[in-house]
Amino acid sequence: MTWGLVFEQLLNGLQYGVMLFLMAAGLTLVLGIMNMVNLAHGSLYMVGAYLAVALTGWTGNYFAGVALALLGTLLIGMAVEVVALRALYHRDHLDQVLATFGLILFFNELVSMIWGRGAQYASLPGWLQGHIDLFTGSRYPVYRVAILVVGLSTALILWYVVTRTRLGMLVRAGASNRTMVGALGVNIRLLYTVVFGVGAALAGLAGLMAGPIYAVQPGMGELILIQVFVVIVIGGIGSVRGALVGAIIVGVVDTLGRAFLKPLLASVISPPAAEAAGPALASMLIYLLMAVVLAVRPSGLFSSR
Amino acid sequence: MKPRLVLWGLAIALLVALPPLATALEQTYYIDLVRRMLILSIAAISLNLILGYGGLVSFGHAAYLGVGAYSVGIMAFYGVSSGWLQWPLAVGASALVALAIGAVSIRTSGIYFIMITLAFTQMLYYLGISLAEFGGDDGMRLKAKSQFSGLINLGDPVAFYYLALALMLFSVFLVYRIVNSRFGMVLRAAKSNDARTRAIGFSPYFYRLAAFVLAGAMCGLAGALYANHTNYITPGLMSWQQSGDLMFMVILGGMASTAGPVIGTFALLLIEEALKGWTEYWQVVLGPLLVLSVIFFKRGLAGMFYKPDA
């Protein structure tokens, strides 16, 4: 294990972290403002990835494909909100979990009806396929750097919108007291739909960026969704800052755990035992982390309430 | 006689008459199908105890199904095929896991409880995947069905069916007695008003934890049965989709009602079976059906027959 390798894995962890953040930002706002548990957020991630593959192929232009896919996910997200989720805001979490669970089944199956059950190949334009030289002497994919840059700039834009604009003010006010915001004459319904649509587009952005790295296939959204919930619970529900911190922590811990836990364990216990325990422990690491955070701070690191 | 008891009598008579009928009509497939429904009903009944009566929205109840099934599978793997040892161990192991998960989770509430129970079950799911010796991701074949010193032969589909039916009815009875006992009253009181329950001198935590452990143990029994039913044990038993399915069975049938979880399990599996026969993409129909049932069908199927008990 060299420091160069550690640095490289740290970058991978950050890159995974910003993708988790793109998912978590929308979900935490929906949860914080509307008090709505939306399991179907992972489906929007999947829809974003599929739309990007299909539309890039159709237009033949990467940027056009990405832009159309984002627009498409935004519209689908708003449609889902208006058709199905609006009826659920006043229900308890149990009903919301179950109804959005039904939506997941629907979206997964719809995608496999249209594109088949196999994985889709997401291509990249040539200028994103190269590598750059790190100061450690190793080479790092340009595409992962690009994800890092896009993710961090989106975080910056979100921070600006949430803390410095009128819309952001309404969003924050909605998270702390939605009845009062409604009473002050704000069209909270429209605000909900807008926030939901933006959250959907962010999930779509995460999905279409994930496409070329991970497999584009039905059910891809659920794997990341559960980790995103871990992020939100660690960061505190409704807090965008918490989502960012939680996402980076979870991304780095998960990536480093998968890369280094086995060799680390092997130096303590026997290698065959480490061979067996390493991967198991690595996949459980973030859930352990969440249990510890909840035990110490029951409402997360940056709770908005 | 109360109409409710008449309905129960009718349902039981139908279930008892099914194997001879199915054999006579040479449709033995239905014995297998209904046996699966009976076994999963036990899991749903146990979830109803904490979800329906206790108000604990556990999104990880499949964990105990998996722990029960793996207990049986692992013991059979090491050559211990006596059901007298396997089944109590399955129940005990599930109870222990439920105690550990419950002790931490019940301190939280609301969305955090949903997420933390989900997280613990995910941990067990990944543990199952990484157990390479026991099949890992692919799961493992059950080496031999549980043996009950010749008393009952699980290899005989009809005998196994009646065992599952008896255990299912026993679970219904057990939960009914628990819910209507002093213990159950406190549990239901804590669900409807936590602060008042404290004010009259009960600590809801221990009541909830006890119910959580009981439900885990019962679901462990369902897991032991399920391992013998499918002869195959996979980590998928502990997947979050399985937990979601169990929740749906309870909600569809009617939360906090005696017959609800059983009706819900039968209804969900029958709908699945019908849709599977109709199209390969059956979930594209099932998904919206589930959404609609949540939005419009608040009291579940059991609500059509009588008022909920709570």
Notes on the structure:
The complex is a heterodimer of chains A (305) and B (310). Chain A is mainly alpha-helical and 305 residues long. In chain A, 75% of the residues lie in helices and 2% in strands. The mean pLDDT of chain A is 86. Chain B is mainly alpha-helical and 310 residues long. Chain B has a domain at 29-238. Chain B has helices at residues 3-24, 29-53, 62-77, 83-105, 111-130, 157-179, 182-192, 194-199, 204-230, 240-253, 260-278, 283-296; strands at 140-141, 232-233. Chain B has a two-stranded antiparallel ribbon. Chain B is globular and about 60 Å long. Chain B starts with a helix and ends in a 14-residue tail after the last helix. Chains A and B meet through helix 4, helix 9 and helix 11 of A and helix 5, helix 10 and helix 12 of B.
Short précis:
Chain A is mainly α. Chain A has helices at residues 3-34, 41-59, 62-83, 93-115, 142-164, 166-176, 178-183, 188-210, 220-235, 240-266, 271-296; strands at 131-133, 139-141. Chain B is mainly α.
Helix-strand blueprint:
The complex is a heterodimer of chains A (305) and B (310).
Chain A: H1 3-34, H2 41-59, H3 62-83, H4 93-115, E1 131-133, E2 139-141, H5 142-164, H6 166-176, H7 178-183, H8 188-210, H9 220-235, H10 240-266, H11 271-296
Antiparallel strand pairs in A: 1-2
Chain B: H1 3-24, H2 29-53, H3 62-77, H4 83-105, H5 111-130, E1 140-141, H6 157-179, H7 182-192, H8 194-199, H9 204-230, E2 232-233, H10 240-253, H11 260-278, H12 283-296
Antiparallel strand pairs in B: 1-2
Helix pairs in contact in B: 2-6, 2-9, 2-10, 2-11, 3-4, 3-9, 4-9, 7-9, 10-11
